[in-house]
Specification:
The structure holds two protein chains of two kinds. Chain A is mainly β. Chain A contains no helices and eleven strands. In chain A, the strands form two sheets. In chain A, strands 2, 4, 5, 9, 10 and 11 form a six-stranded mixed beta sheet that branches. A five-stranded antiparallel beta sheet of chain A has the order 1-3-8-7-6, with no helix packed on it. In chain A, strand 7 and strand 8 form a beta hairpin. Chain B is mainly β. In chain B, strands 2, 4, 5, 6, 9, 10 and 11 form a seven-stranded mixed beta sheet that branches. In chain B, strand 7 and strand 8 form a beta hairpin. Chain B is globular and about 40 Å long. Classes of the chains: A mainly beta, B mainly beta. At the A-B interface, strand 4, strand 5, strand 9 and strand 10 of A face strand 4, strand 5 and strand 10 of B.
């Protein structure tokens, strides 16, 4: 039930782009993306609902492929502040609609160097 | 707007001792989650409350862990007796029902020695 994230880790130079993927074996109602810096709480980035929409926030955007139960997080022109571990959280799709039960992947550690 | 409050921030106990964590969610948030995050892993859902009712506790080790949310606001998570493998950060999160966005507290870092 736990979503699978890839890659496990990525190292970038400032200004480079990265893509983080999240896939689930279950039909999903929504996908949530969080970033966690060392020793801090996870911080919400964005939520994508079923319907294949794409969302963006400055230079961070995400897509949700409902048919493949996959989501991708796109970080463009990375900044030093983007460093951290990125988690996707998935909300499975029961018959009655989203359960709001968030199950997180193992995370992708992103390091942005000068 | 005040965030999710948790206490204590850190706790060190010996194995077989008991420990309790407290969480105060964001005002008005009906849904409350407790997660366990072991170093290097993603948060693992232990229990989810909707107001003061349990929605999901399928991954809560009920022989040693218990949680309650009296009056549908504050919540406590207890471990009794603690084991070495319980060493982790315990995160509390809350959300508005129907919105799905969970806001996390700073967590309690538990070390069992």
């Amino acid at each position: 039930q736990q979503p699978v994230q890839s890659p496990q880790a990525v190292i970038l130079r400032e200004g480079e782009d990265a893509v983080i993927n999240c896939s689930s074996s279950k039909a999903l109602y929504s996908v949530h993306w969080y970033r966690q810096k060392h020793g801090e709480a996870p911080v919400f980035l964005m939520i994508l609902l079923k319907g294949g929409e794409q969302k963006g926030h400055e230079k961070i955007s995400a897509s949700f492929n409902e048919k493949k139960q996959q989501s991708s997080l796109y970080l463009t022109a990375s900044q030093l502040s983007y460093s951290g571990t990125y988690f996707c959280g998935t909300d499975p799709l029961p018959a009655q609609g989203g359960s709001e039960k968030l199950v997180f992947g193992k995370g992708t550690k992103l390091t942005v160097n000068p | 707007e005040a965030g999710v409050a948790q206490s204590p921030r850190y706790k060190i106990i010996e194995k077989r001792q008991s420990v309790a964590f407290w969480c105060n969610p964001i005002s008005g948030h009906a849904t409350l989650y407790w997660y366990q995050q072991i170093l290097g892993q993603g948060p693992k859902l232990l229990i989810q409350f909707q107001n003061n009712g349990v929605v999901d506790d399928s991954q809560l080790p009920k022989d040693r862990f218990s949680a309650e949310r009296l009056k549908g606001v504050d919540s406590t998570l207890k471990i009794q007796p603690a084991k070495l493998e319980d060493s982790a950060v315990y995160l509390c999160a809350s959300s508005l029902w129907g919105q799905g966005v969970a806001f996390f507290g700073q967590g309690t870092r538990l070390t069992v020695v």
